[in-house]
Specification:
alpha+beta, Alpha-Beta Plaits, ABM_dom
């Protein structure tokens, strides 16, 4: 299993709008080949920070999704006016070892 972890921190007072956007997301990724699961979490000690964890059968499936037009379309619900803390957006990749 391949895991992608995206994190970002919201600079302006829009955390609730971002969380709402994730709750109402179009779920386009759900039908992507190789997609397993997505979780969106936020640390209780920093509610302005968002972590997006996606699980895939393999890295190639993630790459195909990430470069697809549906990936870009899936971001259409981002709240207007959203500002991120500079350099806070990061993506890390993980190999799943065990449950």
């Amino acid at each position: 299993m391949f895991i992608a972890l995206s994190t970002f921190t919201i600079a302006n007072d829009m955390a609730e709008a971002v969380k709402e956007a994730f709750l109402n997301r179009p779920k386009l990724v759900n039908e992507a080949p190789g997609f397993i699961k997505m979780q969106v979490i936020s640390p209780t000690d920093n509610p302005q920070e968002i972590w997006l964890i996606t699980q895939w059968t393999d890295e190639e499936s993630y790459k195909v999704w990430h470069h697809s037009h549906l990936y870009h379309e899936s971001h259409s619900g981002i709240p207007k006016g959203l500002k991120l803390v500079p350099r806070s957006a990061k993506v890390r990749f993980f190999e799943h070892i065990a449950d």
